[in-house]
């Protein structure tokens, strides 16, 4: 496995390679990331993973400076998973000058997480397009835990006619149901125990919907009130359509429940897909 930091060197290394499958990450890798790498291996002959903490997607009061950077350990894990090349550029390498040209994501990027993290998905879309242009993969794998991000990336690829197939990897969870995330390490021991309730709540909402509950706004309010009562700071709990993340119309069957809330200083997100029988 090679670790490459320079764009020019990476392009030279990838020249002539076919069937490239790409997994972009911000490092501090856990089993969820490694599962995406395994999916990439199934869909490509040559696997590239990137490690880059992208400043464009962090807000002014977010954790850019403190975001964990564990390059050596990450590379050891990626090597064990059979990655061929790790692209680990510096900020100066990827942004040699101020990034004044950006990708404007679709309007949904201003809702859900986007309503609480202004400009976040513009930063995501911009860095993803840059990385796609550098790596030129045929396949790219993103986790479903960041459900809205996956949707935005798919829209970028489709609407900009990128020759990249976007594959969504299922959320990997701890035994108690908590979605794996690099930010979970910020949780105190009591917070970590409570964090599992987010998934339990979503599972309860899904069960109610499968049993015929159709007052989605009521389910959302009840869930948010329950979280608040347990000490969470709720950004949103929302039922949306799977296809476009719009609020569901009557009769919609393919849905997803999304939630974002804070425990202490740690913001957690999760989601569950729901397919109702027609």
Report on the architecture of this protein:
The chain is of the alpha/beta class and 278 residues long. It has 2 domains: 168 residues, 3-Layer(aba) Sandwich (Rossmann fold), CATH 3.40.50.620; 91 residues, 2-Layer Sandwich (Pantoate--beta-alanine Ligase, Chain: A,domain 2), CATH 3.30.1300. Helix content is 37%, strand content 21%. The chain has 10 helices and 9 strands. A 6-stranded parallel beta sheet has the order 1-4-3-2-5-6, with helices on both faces. α6 packs across α7 and α9 packs antiparallel against α10. The radius of gyration is 19 Å and the shape is globular.
Going across the biggest sheet, name each strand in turn: 1-4-3-2-5-6
- Envelope shape: globular
Specify the CATH class of the largest domain. Alpha Beta
The span between the termini is 49 Å
Tally of contiguous helical segments: 10
CATH architecture of the largest domain: 3-Layer(aba) Sandwich
Number of domains: 2
Supply the CATH superfamily name of the largest domain.
HUPs
Sheet/helix structural class: alpha/beta
Assembly classification? single chain
How confident is the prediction overall: mean pLDDT?
A: 96
Strand coverage percent: 15-25%
Radius of gyration, in angstroms, nearest whole number = 19 Å
Q: Which regions have little confidence, pLDDT < 50, spanning 5+ residues?
A: none
Order of helices and strands: EHEHEHEHHHEHEHHHEEE
**Using DSSP, what is the number of strands?**
9
Helix content: 25-40%
Largest sheet: 6 strands, parallel
């Amino acid at each position: 496995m090679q670790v490459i930091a320079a764009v020019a060197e990476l392009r030279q290394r990838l020249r002539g390679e076919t069937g490239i499958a790409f997994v972009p990450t911000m490092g501090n890798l856990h089993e969820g990331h490694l599962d995406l790498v395994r999916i990439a291996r199934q869909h490509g002959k040559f696997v590239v993973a990137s490690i880059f903490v992208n400043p464009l997607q962090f807000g002014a009061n977010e954790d850019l400076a403190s975001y964990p950077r564990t390059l050596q350990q990450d590379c050891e894990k990626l090597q064990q998973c059979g990655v061929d090349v790790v692209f680990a550029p510096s900020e100066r390498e990827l942004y040699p000058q101020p990034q004044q040209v950006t990708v404007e994501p679709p309007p949904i990027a201003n809702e859900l997480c986007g309503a609480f993290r202004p400009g976040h998905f513009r930063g995501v879309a911009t860095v993803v397009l840059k990385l796609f242009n550098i790596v030129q993969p045929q396949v790219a794998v993103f986790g479903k835990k960041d459900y809205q991000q996956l949707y935005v990336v798919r829209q970028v690829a489709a609407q900009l006619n990128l020759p990249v197939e976007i594959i969504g990897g299922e959320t990997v969870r701890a035994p108690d149901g908590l979605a794996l995330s690099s930010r979970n390490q910020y949780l105190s021991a009591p917070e970590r125990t409570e964090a599992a309730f987010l998934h339990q709540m979503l599972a309860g909402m899904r069960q109610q919907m499968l049993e015929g509950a159709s007052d989605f706004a009521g389910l959302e309010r009840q869930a948010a009130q329950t979280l608040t009562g347990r000490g969470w700071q709720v950004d949103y709990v929302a039922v949306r359509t799977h296809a476009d993340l719009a609020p569901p119309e009557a009769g919609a069957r393919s849905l997803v429940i999304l939630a974002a809330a804070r425990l202490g200083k740690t913001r957690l997100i999760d989601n569950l897909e729901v397919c109702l029988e027609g």
